[in-house]
């Protein structure tokens, strides 16, 4: 999500900016270091440069899929051989000529047999048996004909889909009621969150969901989940619901995803802090240390000012399921076992779900840290070596992280039947690191644990143990001097050379000459500029975002140091080539606010999705296909801001054959989540929150909806005047070829 919900219910929950640490603003040490060493040059192998070069390829193999209408002769392929899609504000899903986009699964769709068809008029209920709202990260889990895990199945699978948040305007007949919120509305909204596991099956070349599947599962904002890893049973997780601190309920604001090498789904809890109300004066009932922690996670209060909740669920009554969203100290216990003062500490993790067993235990893997999680991308598994999991914390000026497993990879685990036990093996023991991006193009992974004196002796916050470090990893990152980044969103691992790509979506708080809480440019986040939106709206900071690329030293997942460059800078093609459009994007390539980033396991194409509010005067959010080279294949750029100079290693500028716009979504949407069939011939992406600019006061007047998609494309009830819905879209190539060719 990029924009705040425009009710008085809300504030800028995804623009949280609670990092007031003094962590590096490297401007002061820049100049001394800049032009030393011809960094990133000769040591980087040219063999990798053309790993996915735009050479003509022949489609691999024949079709083993009788239901896919592939012509008898396979077409030859050229990666990015399609004609670029133009920027557009049209309220439709636009794909290149020769491709087809089909909606398969939208907000409110029945997920189980016997559930009524979705009316889409605000009267529907029972969302714990329907698709949730705001489809986000998504993974594909192949199924054999007999219902066993089958990683090469192209015609039957389970989709694991995040339901990040809600567009409440359209979930209720007249939009959301004022606070106190009616219990029935809150029940709907809690159920619209979470994750769905839904079977899809192909008939006559088209996938559709299977409502009668025994695999189907809905996990909501109320589903019971185990706490595992270093924070399990921690004092900071004691609640009235779980006096032992070992369980919690619900997963909310699930944004990016990951797929483990053993076939489970990882889902990241992102902007969860704002779901919890904290009363004015609650600061008086907590220790100074506890107040530091809550402020760092966006829940500070004063004697006079409360921290408002996003949706007001805590106002729906005294029942436990509503009261739990009020995190104020209310009980008399010393440990929190009689209230929900610690409830917030049960959110903010990577949650593991075994999609192949609808009754499997869900686990919050606290060893991977607690912050605004996006995706979780694995290093390429190598037998006998640990696995690295790369992650970002999407808030302004937050950090990049990696987790390195204690266990080394055993290929036998890829096909183990007790997948939850395999998760226990890899995800509960290991080391969490935070990234420091040095201005010379090198970087360091700094361990976050009590063995680091900078953490155990940190003056700002007194850590008690490694569980505390896991729960408050942001503060641990502050303590060790991690680099403040421009909102780290998804990351992905290049399937051939193993380099890691991190999207930095944008940062309205980045400045050349900061004031107040603003952050100065540094080499890894080098741009701060002014952009005009529409006629006269001024936007400042890193308006359009960029993509940072990391190579582990020695290619080792457990490396403590790395090199980096900036693969791409988002920009409008007409922007200054020397200060903004540094990658030289053309009109077929320009984009803003990269968010989703997924490498195709089939083609190796790097798919880049946008969640933007800056370029939306010109175009709806989009998805681009990229064929990246390798770290070090470009030049350095020096930005002379007068008194401040920043020099950044850049990737090679794209050509028309290495970056091309592939998809533009409907009005007021973002594009997010991506998975494919193993043969690369069917792609699934999510269109999130179309029409979310619609004012709550306009819900009664369809003419004022800012989108009617996908009803206006013939999907579901409502037609041309439908309420908009988030949806999963299937993309196929009309000649049966792979997507992106
Ligand atoms: Fe849910 Fe950071 O986007
Ligand atoms: Ca975003
Ligand atoms: Ca502009
Ligand atoms: Ca995102």
Outline the secondary-structure elements.
Elements: H1 27-33, E1 56-58, E2 76-78, E3 99-106, E4 135-142, E5 156-163, H2 183-191, E6 194-203, E7 206-209, E8 217-219, E9 224-228, E10 247-249, E11 254-259, E12 265-269, H3 288-296, H4 320-323, E13 350-353, E14 363-365, E15 373-378, E16 386-393, E17 396-398, E18 400-408, H5 419-427, E19 430-437, E20 442-447, H6 453-456, H7 466-471, H8 473-479, E21 485-486, E22 488-493, E23 500-504, E24 510-511, E25 519-520, E26 529-533, E27 537-541, E28 546-552, E29 561-569, E30 594-599, E31 606-610, E32 622-626, E33 636-640, E34 645-649, E35 659-664, E36 670-676, E37 682-688, E38 727-733
Parallel strand pairs: 9-14, 24-25
Antiparallel strand pairs: 1-2, 3-38, 4-5, 5-6, 6-7, 6-8, 9-10, 11-12, 12-13, 13-14, 15-16, 16-18, 17-21, 18-19, 19-20, 20-29, 22-23, 23-28, 26-27, 28-29, 30-31, 31-32, 32-35, 33-34, 36-37, 37-38
The structure holds MU-OXO-diiron and calcium ion (3 copies).
Task: Give a description of the structure.
The chain has 741 residues and is mostly beta strands. It contains 8 helices and 38 strands. Strands 15-16-18-19-20-29-28-23-22 form a 9-stranded antiparallel β-sheet. A 6-stranded mixed β-sheet has the order 10-9-14-13-12-11, covered by helices on one side. Strands 4, 5, 6, 7 and 8 form a 5-stranded antiparallel β-sheet that branches. Bound molecules: MU-OXO-diiron (FEO) and calcium ion (3 copies). The site of MU-OXO-diiron (FEO) has 9 residues, from loops.
């Amino acid at each position: 999500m990029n924009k705040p919900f425009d009710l008085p219910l809300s504030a800028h929950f995804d623009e949280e900016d609670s990092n007031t640490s003094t962590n590096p603003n490297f401007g002061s040490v820049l100049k001394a270091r800049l032009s030393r060493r011809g960094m990133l040059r000769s040591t980087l192998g040219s063999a990798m440069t053309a790993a996915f070069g735009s050479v003509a390829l022949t489609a691999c193999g024949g079709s083993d899929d009788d239901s896919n209408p592939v012509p008898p002769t396979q077409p030859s392929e050229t990666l990015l051989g399609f004609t670029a899609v133009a920027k557009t504000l049209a309220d439709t899903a636009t794909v290149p000529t020769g491709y087809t986009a089909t909606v398969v699964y939208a907000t409110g769709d029945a997920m189980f047999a016997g559930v009524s068809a979705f009316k889409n008029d605000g009267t529907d209920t029972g969302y714990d048996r329907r698709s949730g709202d705001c489809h986000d990260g998504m993974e594909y889990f192949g199924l054999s004909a007999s219902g066993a895990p089958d990683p090469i199945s192209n015609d039957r699978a389970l989709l694991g889909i995040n339901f990040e948040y809600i567009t409440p305007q359209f979930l209720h007949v007249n939009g959301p009621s004022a606070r106190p919120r009616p219990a029935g509305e809150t029940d709907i909204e809690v159920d619209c969150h979470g994750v769905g596991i839904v079977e899809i099956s192909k008939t006559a070349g088209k996938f559709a969901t299977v409502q009668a599947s025994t695999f189907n599962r809905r996990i909501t904002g109320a589903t019971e989940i185990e706490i595992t890893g270093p924070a399990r049973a921690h004092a900071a997780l004691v609640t009235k619901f779980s006096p032992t601190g070992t369980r919690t309920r619900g997963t909310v604001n699930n944004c990016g995803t990951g797929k483990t090498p053993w076939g489970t789904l990882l889902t990241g809890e992102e902007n969860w802090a704002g779901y919890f109300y904290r009363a004015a004066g609650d600061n008086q009932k907590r220790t100074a240390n506890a107040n530091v922690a809550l402020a760092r996670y966006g829940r500070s209060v004063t004697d006079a000012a409360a921290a408002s909740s996003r949706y007001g669920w805590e106002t729906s009554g005294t029942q436990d399921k509503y009261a739990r969203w009020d995190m104020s100290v209310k009980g008399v216990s010393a440990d929190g076992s009689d209230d929900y003062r610690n409830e917030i500490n049960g959110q903010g993790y990577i949650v593991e779900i075994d999609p192949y067993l609808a009754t499997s235990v869900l686990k919050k893997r606290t060893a991977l840290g607690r912050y605004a999680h996006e995706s979780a991308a694995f290093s390429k598994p190598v037998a006998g070596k640990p696995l690295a999991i790369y992650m970002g914390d999407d808030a302004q000026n937050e950090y990049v992280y990696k987790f390195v497993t204690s266990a080394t990879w055993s290929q036998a685990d890829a096909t183990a039947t007790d997948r939850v036990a395999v998760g226990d093996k890899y995800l509960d023991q290991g080391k969490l690191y935070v990234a420091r991006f040095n201005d010379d193009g090198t970087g360091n992974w700094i361990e976050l644990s009590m063995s680091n004196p900078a953490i155990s002796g940190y003056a700002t916050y007194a850590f008690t143990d490694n569980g505390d470090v896991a729960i408050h990893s942001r503060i641990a990152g502050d303590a060790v001097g991690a680099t403040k980044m421009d909102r780290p969103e998804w990351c992905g691992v290049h399937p051939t050379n193993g380099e890691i790509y991190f999207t930095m979506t944008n940062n309205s708080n980045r400045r050349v000459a900061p004031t107040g809480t603003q952050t100065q440019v540094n080499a890894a986040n080098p741009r701060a500029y002014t952009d005009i939106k529409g006629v006269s709206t001024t936007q400042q900071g890193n308006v359009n975002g960029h993509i940072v690329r990391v190579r582990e030293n020695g290619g080792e997942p457990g490396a403590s140091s790395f090199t980096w460059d900036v693969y791409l800078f988002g920009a409008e093609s007409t922007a200054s080539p020397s200060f903004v459009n540094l990658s030289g994007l053309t009109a077929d390539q320009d984009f803003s606010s990269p968010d989703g980033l997924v490498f195709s396991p089939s083609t190796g194409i790097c798919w880049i999705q946008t969640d933007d509010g800056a370029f939306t005067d010109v175009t709806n959010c989009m998805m681009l296909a990229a064929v990246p080279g390798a770290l070090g294949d470009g030049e350095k750029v020096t930005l002379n801001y007068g008194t401040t100079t920043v020099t950044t290693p850049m990737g090679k500028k794209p050509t028309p054959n290495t970056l091309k716009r592939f998809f533009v979504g409907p009005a007021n949407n973002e594009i997010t989540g991506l998975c494919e069939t193993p043969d690369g011939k069917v792609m699934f992406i999510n269109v999130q929150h179309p029409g979310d600019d619609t004012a709550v006061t306009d819900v009664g007047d369809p003419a004022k909806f800012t989108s009617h998609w996908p009803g206006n494309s013939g999907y579901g009830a409502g037609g041309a005047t439908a309420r908009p819905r988030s949806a999963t879209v299937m993309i196929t190539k009309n000649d049966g070829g792979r997507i992106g060719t």
